[in-house]
Amino acid sequence: MDFAWSGEQDGFREQVRSFIQEHWSEGARMREDLERPERVKEYQKRLADAGWLTMAWPEEYGGGGASYIEQMIFAEESTFAQAPTGGQGADRLGPALILFGNEEQRREHLPKIAQAETNWCQGYSEPGSGSDLASLQTRAVRDGDDYVINGQKIWTSGAQHADWIHVLTRTDPDAPKHRGISYFMLRMDTPGISLRPIVQMTDEAGFNETFFEDVRVPAANMIGEENRGWYVSATTLDFERSGINRMAEAVPIYDRLLAHSKAADSAGTGRRVIDTAINRQHLADTAIEINVARLLGYRVSWMQSMDLVPNHESSISKLFGTELQQRNARHGINMLGLGGQLRPGQSQAPMGGELCYAYMATVSRTIAAGTSEIQRNIIATRGLGLPRG
Q1: Residue 32 above 50 pLDDT?
Q2: For residues 36 and 16, is the Cβ–Cβ distance under 8 A?
Q3: End-to-end Cα separation, the chain, in angstroms
Q4: Cβ(153)–Cβ(194) below 8 Å
Q5: Which CATH number fits domain 7-118: 1.10.274.10, 1.10.540.10, 1.10.10.60, 1.10.10.10?
Q6: CB-facing half-sphere around the CA of 328: CA atoms within 13 A
Q7: Tens digits of residue pLDDT in 110-134
């Protein structure tokens, strides 16, 4: 099997690298960078102007008609550089609308996403419904041409910067739990929606609690059929779990750890982190795992390019990539010794505290978008055909 890139693909990769170097300078590793939404929005607008934000979408909806492989190359290089790639509108809500939305919804929302005019967040998890998402209790009751929503969501990433939310609700409390769910799109400034930020151990507030109190949403904003929203959201989750980004997120921090490990310590003793046998083993193992994760991500993109819809394949990529991120951070912080516990901004922190930050930030990676346990269940039942229970 030939894994080589074509000349055109290599040229496109270089084009993406040059664009990022010109328009996105320092990456987004630390909290002060992550809390600059206007900078991200400005950069995403540049991506949209260049035609890269939704380049694999159909042209009639604002896309570029490019291949999924090109979209993957763009996402890979962007993530290596820790640059934004488009957010939830581009990577999950938009593709779901292309598959399940009606033509009016596509015409209204997809061009705005493609032009970076709207920012989206996702209302799925609830305080009592995480891994068992289908047990959600947020209610939507029909009232004329509207539905009235009451309930609470949690872990709503980026809600404080979002214009719209795509949200799962229960519309038939008497139906089996997977069959009584409907999927809506709401503006975040709709009366009755309120937020409460959740401060994480990294001192960031990237997550939020989202409350719905008698929130009215037009029935026309429902994605797919009433009480069949679970099946649309399952495909949205497949898009969320797809892609190369989880592998690529591990690469820059690994590269900097490797460079740090090869350098002599600041005390002038000449000792290097890499001189310890166990540290060399960790670095070698991680290099191998990164390449395995890369091929798993490439497989998903190849399937999409063949008009296939990855399911358990996405779960494999998501599972391996997020656990890779955690192992990389855990091994790295241990390699740095006690100094590895120092946070960004603290004096004497090795690598500027980056490993400490990564160690804390990657805790949520194996939980968000479906826990590792859920991914293993999907792989077992849908991939290997094993029985449930």
Answers
A1: no
A2: no
A3: 38
A4: no
A5: 1.10.540.10
A6: 31
A7: 999 999 999 999 999 999 998 899 9
Upper half-sphere CA count for residue 164 (Cβ side, 13 Å): 22
Say how far apart CA 325 and CA 317 lie, in whole Å: 12
| pTM (two decimals) | 0.88
Mean pLDDT of the chain: 91
| Catalytic site positions | 240
Distance between CA atoms of 64 and 275, rounded to whole angstroms? Answer: 49
Q: Tell whether domain 121-225 is in CATH 3.90.550.10.
A: no
Residue 359's Cβ-count burial label (10 Å; 0-12, 13-18, 19+) is buried
Contact 204, 34 (CB under 8 A): yes
| Superfamily name and number for 242-383 | Butyryl-CoA Dehydrogenase, subunit A, domain 3 (1.20.140.10)
Question: What are all long-range contacts of 202-208, with beta carbons under 8 Å and residues at least 24 apart?
Answer: 202/31, 202/357, 202/360, 202/361, 203/31, 204/31, 204/34, 204/35, 205/160, 206/34, 206/157, 206/158, 207/154, 207/155, 207/156, 207/157, 208/155, 208/156, 208/157, 208/159, 208/160
Instruction: State the residue for tokens 């999907």.
Output: 378
d(CA 118, CA 220): 19
- Residue with structure tokens 């990389």? 328
Q: How many CA atoms lie within 13 A of 306 on its CB side?
A: 9
What residue ranges of the chain are covered by domains with CATH 2.40.110.10? 121-225
Amino acid at residue number 381: T
Residues of the chain with CATH 1.10.540.10: 7-118
